[in-house]
Amino acid sequence: MRSKHEPEVKELSWGVDLEKNFPQSECHYDYILAADVVYSHPYLEELLMTFDHLCQDDTIILWTMKFRLEKENNFVEKFKYIFDVEVIYNLPSLQIKLYRATWKISSRLRKET
């Protein structure tokens, strides 16, 4: 995997000061790596908002998820409204999936207006 932009690792709090800490005019991410970030907690909407904020036309999300509760299934369905999602690896015995996701065209248009 080659990057078009200089790799950068930053800490973030989901949904908090996204434009201040990660201005869309300056921050360009080729890849977003996320591992086991969806679990039973009250911040799933903020996580979805954060993924959406950080993505641009060519950003690829590589995201590993362990399915534990129905809440995780609901999150994946909401995620699919914004992103095109492909399961690239599946470990059914462990209930783990690796996803590759990119922005849907409709999400890009919404963000541009």
UniProtKB/TrEMBL annotation:
GO terms for biological process: methylation. Signal peptide: none annotated. GO terms for molecular function: methyltransferase activity. It comes from the Eukaryota. Keywords: Methyltransferase, S-adenosyl-L-methionine, Transferase. Pfam families: Methyltransf_16. InterPro entries: Methyltransf_16 (IPR019410), SAM-dependent_MTases_sf (IPR029063). This is Uncharacterized protein. It comes from Callorhinchus milii.
